[in-house]
């Protein structure tokens, strides 16, 4: 009666899922709506930046050689022949001992090869002519931002798959991207299973709990860069449940179910996968929490069967769903980043399987510190609120002591990581 | 003619701005729209979690003492008297050698004090009665999640000012927050100044540049948790500009201008502050880039005059605007977090003033590494796209060499920091 499941290692599970990557197509959105989207195309410089030699300061453009004899005791005087603001271009060309008043960002006039900051000059007028004097010499090139020094025309600026941050936005604006090619977000469906589940707005009832997983996964999907679609709770009837999953697959790019993947009598998912003709990539992973996590593939679509326990569900999403969303978005480092960290507390439990311990990480004295938070039970929901990392304890290890170095998986790290994490490859055992 | 400005230290500048903190009021939003908002109220547990003793596994609830004699050679057999799914409650009470089939998450039936995982049992039927046998003893409490072990009723779960992450969402769902009290986002206006500015959609013209600052600041405002309001470009006419600023102040909670704060002939902002009767908190900061950053206060409102140079503008936003937005959102650590990091490259320039060097930080071998990116000129826009940190080099220091420890200000760090950063207090000089 009881189905026997063979657990596979985390490393192998992630690799199996990663084989079925899909990538999104392109859509154009206004620049102001593009924050935190992912570029669908490489961005190259279509002009030099700066587009012309310009002044980084307010001051006077001069011919440096005219200032050669200037010193504290010997002011050199220039005639101010023009006065240009940023955005304007002087039509004059500087002759000997001539200067042009110039604003920050303005184009260097012809003949000039240096800019003197306003603070280092003295100005005066005589007979309707403006003059400026300096008391130190300048060299050709002083205070000039040269054309192309920031970016040369044709140079590669941003790779597709780049997440659009405010700094990227500035670059896109500079190159005239009022509209930006970004990857269409995948739609990720969420179906909850579990006869014990109440709606979030329901009053508590004996033996029941509110459906926190769907709300949590909904938020995780947004954070991973996709569009969540909450498809409600599956019914207790197998045929209805099967029909609901079939229908959901038509509306979504990925489908997540929470709960129902265990071996209990009310766990429909294995039978639904079966009836779909789905290929089950695995239905047991040698990890805690989340060992019952199942991933299947049907009609070229990945079905993620996450555990009904909140922390197990969170870990399953982080390991398997998020990287596939990030791959869809063309990110070349789709996995969560990790760092070595110093454990702040003893963690005495042995780890027959790879263990993911909810933790809060922070920087202190040049090191990253990792503190386990709250209870380490997969049913715990309070500790998830504090966690910003999972401490990864390889299978086959004994307890850990405060001060030992561990690996922390950083939940909202932006640098990301390629697979495999070296720590997992090392710990994979047959 | 030339106005003399006295620079103040970064530390002092941040403190002056921080004196005028304002905090937002409360609005209620649906849970699914609350991601990355900030809680306006403390959240306490209004019930125990778990709300009842429950089973973390599929299996059988038993009286542990009945299994005392069980061993590999001596199976102890229990009669299965009931069968309950998650969400259901058994009305039976266990007697000696009786068991109840129980699902993950289901309430422990009366009389039972342990749960045996399904995998450790053998089941059979005889004469219409179901039996289950075990081959090892269990202890009272084995595999039971006790009422309140995750959170006790009345305990404090989340403080106001907490950023809502997926883990926080799970907790809010558990406690029935279908609607969540969050802090109303402040509206932050952006006015650009500069005769050289083209719209992002405009073709390039001689001497002009596209307005990348407004787009960048727009994105920074969203990332900081506020609502940006792009109010376009100020005109070249003083009276029109003054009227535009006056009008903007009515529609916004904070107002940012980019450019126009220098001492150039087209820099209107100082005169506008003057006509507004604004108190100028400072108009020069001993830092690079961004020394001309100005903050003024008029009609109980902060006016941020950021530099027109992209990197200087970015730094000014990070140091002065973001903390005020985060304070409005009740975050008790409103400043950017920082960490000690190892410099990967020489940085030979001396630092007469506090310098913020755009950098990319990453984790390697238990350390955070900081690599300066691109040009270190305040006009550089390409390097901002790569930067996720600013290396903070205290004023009065000489060049730095690869391998030295520096302080990195983490742009999108979520842990945040209180003021003062110890590094800045140490480096503040009179």
UniProtKB/TrEMBL annotation, chains A, B:
Catalytic activities: adenylyl-molybdopterin + molybdate = Mo-molybdopterin + AMP + H(+)
Establish whether keyword GTP-binding is in the entry.
Answer: no
**Which Gene Ontology terms cover its molecular function?**
metal ion binding; molybdopterin molybdotransferase activity
The alphabetized UniProt keywords are:
Magnesium, Metal-binding, Molybdenum, Molybdenum cofactor biosynthesis, Transferase
Q: Does the keyword Magnesium apply?
A: yes
Pathway given in the UniProt record: Cofactor biosynthesis; molybdopterin biosynthesis
- Secretion signal span: none
Enzymatic class: transferase
The alphabetized list of GO BP terms reads: Mo-molybdopterin cofactor biosynthetic process
Q: Name one Pfam family in it.
A: MoCF_biosynth
> What cofactor is this protein dependent on?
Mg(2+)
Q: Where are the transmembrane segments?
A: none
Q: What's the Enzyme Commission number for this chain?
A: 2.10.1.1
Look up the record and report any one GO term of the cellular component aspect: cytosol
User: What superkingdom heads the lineage?
Assistant: Bacteria
Similarity-based family: Belongs to the MoeA family.
Biological role stated in the UniProt entry: Catalyzes the insertion of molybdate into adenylated molybdopterin with the concomitant release of AMP.
Q: What's this protein's name?
A: Molybdopterin molybdenumtransferase
């Amino acid at each position: 009666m009881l189905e026997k499941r063979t657990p596979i290692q985390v490393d192998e599970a992630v690799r199996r899922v990663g084989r079925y990557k899909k990538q999104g197509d392109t859509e154009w959105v206004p620049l102001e709506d593009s924050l935190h989207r992912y570029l669908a195309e490489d961005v190259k410089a279509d002009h030099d930046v700066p587009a012309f030699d310009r002044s980084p300061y307010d001051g006077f453009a001069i011919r440096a050689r005219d200032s050669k004899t200037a010193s504290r005791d010997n002011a050199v005087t220039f005639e101010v022949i023009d006065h240009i603001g940023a955005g304007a271009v002087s039509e004059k060309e500087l002759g000997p001992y001539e200067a042009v008043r110039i604003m920050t960002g303005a184009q260097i006039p012809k003949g000039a090869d240096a800019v003197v900051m306003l603070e280092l000059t003295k100005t005066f007028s005589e007979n309707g002519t403006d003059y400026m004097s300096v008391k130190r010499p300048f060299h050709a090139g002083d205070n000039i931002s040269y054309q192309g020094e920031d970016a040369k025309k044709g140079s590669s600026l941003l790779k597709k798959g780049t997440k659009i941050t405010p700094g990227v936005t500035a670059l896109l604006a500079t190159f005239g991207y009022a509209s930006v090619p970004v990857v269409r977000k995948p739609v990720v469906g969420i179906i909850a299973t579990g006869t014990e589940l109440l709606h979030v707005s329901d009053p508590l009832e004996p033996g029941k709990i509110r459906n926190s997983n769907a709300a949590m996964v909904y938020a995780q999907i947004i954070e991973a860069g996709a569009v969540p679609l909450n498809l409600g709770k599956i019914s207790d009837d197998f045929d209805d449940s099967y029909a609901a999953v079939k229908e959901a697959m038509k509306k979504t790019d990925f489908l997540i179910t929470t709960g129902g993947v265990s071996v209990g009598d009310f766990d429909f998912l294995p039978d639904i996968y079966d009836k779909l003709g789905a290929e089950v990539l695995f239905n047991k992973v040698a990890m805690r929490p989340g060992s019952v996590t199942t991933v299947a593939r049907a009609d070229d679509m990945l079905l993620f069967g996450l555990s009904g326990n909140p922390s197990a569900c969170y870990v399953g999403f982080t390991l398997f769903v998020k990287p596939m969303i990030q791959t869809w978005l063309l990110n070349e480092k789709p996995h969560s980043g990790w760092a070595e960290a110093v454990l702040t507390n003893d963690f005495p439990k042995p780890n027959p399987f790879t263990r993911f311990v909810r933790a809060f990480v922070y920087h202190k004295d040049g090191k990253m510190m990792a503190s386990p938070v709250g209870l380490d039970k997969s049913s715990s929901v309070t500790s998830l609120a504090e966690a910003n990392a999972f401490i990864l304890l390889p299978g086959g290890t004994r307890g850990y002591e405060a001060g030992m170095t561990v690996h922390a998986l950083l939940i909202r790290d932006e640098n990301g990581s390629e697979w495999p994490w070296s720590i997992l490859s090392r710990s994979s055992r047959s």
